[in-house]
Amino acid sequence: MKVVxxxxxxxxGGAEAALRTLLSTIREARPDWELELIVTExxxxxxxxxxxxxxVHILPIPRAxxxxxxxxxxxxxxxxxxxxxxxxxxxxxxxxxALYMLRLRKTLRRAKPDLVHSNGFKMHLLGVLGRPAGVPxxxxxxxxxxxxxxxxxxxxxxxxxxxVAAANSSSVGDDISKLCPDLDVVTVRNAVDVRRFNPExxxxxLDGLSGMTRAAEGVIRIGLVATMAKWKGHEIFxxxxxxxxxxxxxxxxxxxxxxxxxxxxQISIASLKRIAAELxxxxxxxxxxxxxxxxxxxxxxxxVVHASTLPEPxxxxxxxxxxSGRPVVVSAAGGAAEIVEACGSTLHFPPGDVExxxxxxxxxIENGVLRxxxxxxxxxxxxxxxxxxxxxxxxxxxxxxxxxxxxxx
Length: 409
Known about the structure:
The chain is of the alpha/beta class. It is globular. Helix 1 crosses helix 17, helix 10 crosses helix 15 and helix 13 crosses helix 16. The two termini are 17 Å apart. A seven-stranded parallel sheet has the order 3-2-1-4-5-6-7, sandwiched between helices. Strands 10-9-8-11-12-13 form a six-stranded parallel sheet, sandwiched between helices. The protein has 17 helices and 13 strands.
């Protein structure tokens, strides 16, 4: 079998980390299969996959299309404003978009795939338009579609041309099924490499990367590891840290950077630094910027925080922290709540509840036994729930089923 993957970004956000894990897992499970990636830009993901010997084709997408998203306007008239804005931008970018589609079709025809696997909403649509006739298309759904006024309309129409959708959690699967009731949807939860994410190994110098003096012995390092998406809860994290008693020894770290091109969807590090200063946290919070390898980041932390203000589609950082043997405090909604339930974790709080988060963090700072137990429990859960072996098996079975449908047709 030959599978060609379509991905809109070469930066290392959560969807790209999940894709990287999937590709390496499929290569290990089925070395006789051919895998190729088509991506719209150069970036860290390209280099990592080429190091694995995987062919990668870079097809730059027109800026008018790459910057299109559902986060460009807000307020009561937000949906109408967003839709009008997107349509206008696509019209203006029409000629360059048409040229891109011709290049994509040509690249896919030359690749002669048995199956096309698209990652990301824009690539789901482009996959429908660019795949060779008769080739099955798998949509890998990493996010909720119903909350996207533009994409939900487009994907509802395009779903008739998709063979099957693989959702990364039951919550995401239910969402796409309600939007596209005739679409074949299966749930395949994300995975982490528990050999790479483990309690032992190298760690990074978070203080040095933040430009801070080294924290004193006994200081508990608490980190939020996330992209700069507005809904990832950076302000919730900072406000919770500000509520922790001054005499408790901790230092907070905001770890991540702006990795996507969609307009209006991200908060800047400069804005977060201003908030931290207003809260009196200048000496207690460091900002590292983007770090491409999160495994040594997890090992550098004593506590990991997931603070998303909206339901999390899956919560890869939660699984990575658990695999690394670190206690992780979870904003329990959506796929993140599924992880909490599957692992029996008690370290969770309602999304946006600053006081509840601060209370849990205070207990973890004071109680080393609790930190150790939570870390060990999380590691055991990751070793049973989030293994790459399970991920590879489930996707290989899905690909085989889709391929057999095509062959029978």
